[in-house]
Amino acid sequence: MEMKAIRELDAGKLDAKLAEFRQELFNLRFQHATAQLENTQRIKAVKQSIARILTVKNDSGKA
User: Fold this and answer.
1) What biological processes does GO assign it (predicted)?
2) Residue 4 contacts residue 53 (beta carbons within 8 Å)
3) Does the pLDDT value for residue 63 go beyond 70?
4) CATH of segment(s) 3-61
């Protein structure tokens, strides 16, 4: 997810997206451990999306 799209979400939607990405990361890690994951780059992309969401949440609290 791109930063511009993340910044446009409100707090409730940010929390929902964060939960969604964390669940996806869990599933990807499980697939990777069982050698079922085909696209390992997706793990990196999901981690980056989680970090972006957390950055926006932290910035909005200080503004």
Assistant:
1) translation
2) no
3) no
4) 1.10.287.310
